[in-house]
Write a structure and sequence with these properties.
The chain is an alpha/beta fold. It has 17 helices and 14 strands. The strands form 3 sheets. Strands 9-10-11-12-14-13 form a 6-stranded mixed β-sheet. Strands 2-3-4-1-5 form a 5-stranded parallel β-sheet, sandwiched between helices. A 3-stranded antiparallel β-sheet has the order 6-8-7. Helix 16 links the parallel strand 11 and strand 12. The longest helix has 23 residues. It is globular, with a radius of gyration of 22 Å.
Length: 384
């Protein structure tokens, strides 16, 4: 079954980045059916352009002005962006530049095409895209990477995805020299999903130097496998934590890296997986719908256990969101949202959980079941 994706087609050239298997090529093929397409995963074509990038220019000259061109996995050969730049300027060609890594594009692509190419990101399937097929339990257990979700055996596909793709992607980038150390680091990083980054602790557990771990974390971000959530500076006359939190992009990948790929989730896993899924959904809507300008988490350094998972800022307004995986709420679930009440610009506080019905507490905190939370995101109603 094909699902409609929420990513929108720009009217000008754009980068479309996202981990492999998230459906970039499928979406571009449907959105631009008549485009001239170059697949750089085709080894013969890759070797041809590697030896002589000018061959691409010879082909592009045959296209009518204003034509669309798709360069799939352009991150394998970013030198081609010189040709892209030239033909945008000289012949008004429009390019869809797909890639599963931002590492090589950071140096060449962003600077070279600044102002000439927009940025889009492709994420695992969102509930809005899956419609009636969405199952939170399945997403938390096996993730929603399209190549896994649509496989005849999702569990086997997930295991293969992690074993082959992650390691091959890293090796293809030539980004890690200490592959044994990186192999030890990956499951430890998965255990840190949703936690504050402690580079020294990660280094100790992986048996590598702290500087090596910092490099490993950068590789995970550059290959779009992980992202860091910064600490939000609320300035409520308290000292706040400064270290970011680490999240992997998909809950199924988290569990597979930990060696626990199965349809059944242990109780101790649920909280971090649910928080990570909410983080991934909020991040996707920021990319697709400009949900917020920046975000972070808030935790006073002097009050352990008091935290707000996500603080979203849009203009001068702030929305605080707490994620709890339980079906019932307790007073402690509201501690962070009540502690941040005095934040300047705060317009709404939301607790997302698996309750049956939405409600509002006496002091104005909205308790939203997952379905109600998703409906607000889809309809753009998270902000009052």
């Amino acid at each position: 079954m094909l699902y409609n994706r929420v990513v929108s087609l720009p009217g000008q050239s754009f980068f479309l980045l996202g981990p492999r298997g998230t459906g970039k090529s499928t979406w571009v093929r449907g959105a631009l059916p008549g485009a001239f397409r170059v697949d750089l995963l085709d080894e013969a074509r890759y070797q041809e352009y590697l030896a002589s990038p000018a061959h691409l220019s010879d082909e592009l000259r045959l296209l009518p002005r204003g034509s669309w061109v798709v360069l799939d996995e352009v991150s394998r050969l970013p030198v081609l962006l010189h040709q892209v730049h030239r033909f945008i300027e000289e012949r008004d060609l429009r390019f869809a530049l797909c890639g599963s890594s931002a590492r090589k594009l950071k140096k060449e692509g962003t600077n070279l095409l600044a102002g000439r190419a927009l940025h889009r990101e492709m994420h695992p399937f969102l509930p809005e895209e899956l419609g009636a097929d969405f199952s939170l339990d399945r997403v938390l257990a096996l993730g929603s990477v399209p190549v896994v979700w649509m496989a005849p055996s999702p569990l086997e596909a997930l295991t293969a995805y992690v074993r082959m793709y992650l390691r091959e992607e890293v090796q293809a980038e030539a980004a890690v020299r200490n592959l044994p150390g990186f192999a030890r680091f990956l499951p430890i990083a998965a255990l840190m999903h949703g936690q504050v980054v402690n580079a020294a602790g990660l280094a100790r557990d992986a048996g590598v130097a702290r500087t090596t771990v910092l490099g490993f974390l950068e590789v995970l971000e550059d290959t779009l496998i992980a992202f860091r959530l910064p600490a939000f500076e609320a300035r409520l006359r308290v000292r706040e934590r400064k270290h970011p939190k680490l999240f992997l992009f998909d809950s199924g990948v988290v569990r597979a890296l930990k060696g626990r790929p199965s349809p059944f989730i242990a109780p101790e896993e649920v909280g971090a997986l649910f928080e990570g899924w909410v983080a991934a959904v909020l991040r996707a809507y920021a990319h697709h719908r400009d949900l917020y300008d920046d975000w972070g988490y808030w935790a006073p350094a002097d009050a352990r256990g008091t935290e707000v998972d996500f603080v979203l800022r849009r203009g001068g307004e702030v929305c605080a969101v707490e994620a709890k995986a339980g079906r019932a709420t307790s007073p402690s679930d509201f501690a962070g949202l009540r502690a941040i009440q005095g934040l300047p610009g705060l317009v709404r506080r939301v607790l997302v959980c698996r309750a049956d019905r939405p409600r509002r507490t006496e002091d104005g905190i909205d308790v939203l079941p997952v379905a109600a939370f998703l409906a607000e995101l889809e309809q753009g109603r998270l902000w009052p």
